[in-house]
Every structure is written in structure tokens, then in C-alpha cells.
Design brief:
Elements lengths: L1 H10 L5 H31 L4 H24 L8 H22 L4 H25 L10 H15 L4 H11 L5 H36 L2
Length: 217
């Protein structure tokens, strides 16, 4: 995570100005995750229990940062897009994470929390796919192919990559068929792939877009 942060920092210096903000936000995602994993590691070593609080503190910061990336890359080519998209994504994020946390620490019934969390996730997916399509935010005459590629890759990660978390919750906390150690390893790998790959999707498109713009100058 820390290495990815350094990478995105230096790469942000070589891309077009309208991509810089996206890479800076991506850099924050990996930096926050890297710092929290240091705390999570120490907690695991000393207490020998799953670092639930630290993990959700990490998610409560990094997930909204990832959500705002959708709006940032769209606004870079279409300044008329308002802030409604981010706020709706934030609502879905809060519902999803709050339900998951309450279920894991026993504040609410685990099964009830699972379904509420799933509802929050589905709300996010509807905003990313359905609402964006209905509003025509990704039409080729509005956004270029690089923005489209970046957007859809991030959407794929939010759909497929994030499915690991509810599956882990279901089999780990509801069914009890996955050990605490295995579940934490699964979450760690999911964070590693989802957060870094999410930002790499933006970086790859930013590099290609910048190269294309430079070529036409």
C-alpha cells in the first residue's frame, strides 16, 4: 500500500492536469489503508483478535474516497455534473458499512445487518450503473474512451471485487464455516487487490489519455 502511494504520487506529476486530482485521491486511498494496516497488524499480534474497529475505520475513510473517484473522472470532462452522485454514493456507503459493523460487533442482529448492508451495496451499484446510464453521463459524445474505460473498470471492481466482503461476512459470521484467521487473510487480500487495482485503473487510463493529448499538441 505504501509503495503504491509513492508510485501514484510520482505518476501524478506526469499526467494531464484533469487527471491529477484522481491520482491524488487514489494516493490517499492507499496511504490511509497502509497506515491502518500497521495498526491492524499490531492489534492482531498483541490481542490475537480480529481488528474489527480498525478495519471499519479504514473502510469508512477509503470507501468514500473511492466513491468520489467516479464523480471526479466524469467532472474532469463534464464540469456540469453536480455533487448529487457523490452524496448518493456516500449514503449507500454509510448504510453498507454501518450495518456491517453493527452486525459484527453484535449491536444488531447479524442476519438483519447482512441484508441491510447488501441493500447499501446494491444502492451503490444502481447509482454507478443504472443512474449514470439513465443520465447519459457516459455517452461517447460527452466523455472520451479513456474516461469510459476507467469508469467501467472501477465499476467492475466495486461489483466483483467487493463481493468478497459480503461473502466473508456470510460464511464467517453467519455460517461460522470460515476461521477468523482465514477470514482476515481473505479481507487483507481483497483490500490489497481492490484498492490498488481500483487506483491502477485510473492511472492506466490517465497515462494513455495524457499520451494521446500530447501527441495531438
Amino acid at each position: 500500500m505504501i509503495a503504491a502511494t509513492v508510485f501514484f504520487y510520482f505518476e501524478s506529476m506526469s499526467v494531464s492536469s484533469h487527471w491529477k486530482t484522481s491520482l491524488h485521491v487514489g494516493m490517499l486511498v492507499t496511504l490511509v489503508a497502509g497506515v491502518h494496516y500497521m495498526y491492524m497488524r499490531e492489534y492482531w499480534v498483541q490481542v490475537h483478535k480480529s481488528p474489527i474497529v480498525y478495519r471499519y475505520v479504514d473502510w469508512s475513510i477509503t470507501v468514500p474516497l473511492q466513491m468520489i473517484e467516479f464523480q471526479i473522472i466524469l467532472r474532469s470532462v463534464n464540469p456540469n455534473i453536480g455533487g448529487g452522485m457523490f452524496w448518493r454514493l456516500l449514503i449507500g456507503t454509510v448504510v453498507m458499512l454501518a450495518a456491517g459493523y453493527c452486525g459484527e460487533v453484535g449491536v444488531t442482529a447479524p442476519t438483519f445487518s447482512f441484508y441491510v448492508g447488501i441493500a447499501g451495496w446494491v444502492f451503490i451499484l444502481c447509482e454507478v450503473f443504472v443512474v449514470a446510464a439513465l443520465r447519459g453521463l457516459l455517452k461517447s459524445e460527452i466523455v472520451n474512451k479513456h474516461v469510459q474505460t476507467s469508469y467501467y473498470t472501477m465499476a467492475f471492481i466495486v461489483t466483483v471485487g467487493w463481493s468478497i466482503y459480503p461473502l466473508g461476512y456470510y460464511y464467517g459470521y453467519l455460517k461460522g464455516s470460515v476461521s477468523e484467521v482465514d477470514l482476515n487473510v481473505l479481507y487483507n487480500l481483497a483490500d490489497f487487490v481492490n484498492k490498488i487495482a481500483f487506483c491502477l485503473a485510473i492511472w492506466a487510463c490517465a497515462v494513455k489519455s495524457t499520451a494521446e493529448e500530447t501527441k495531438h499538441m
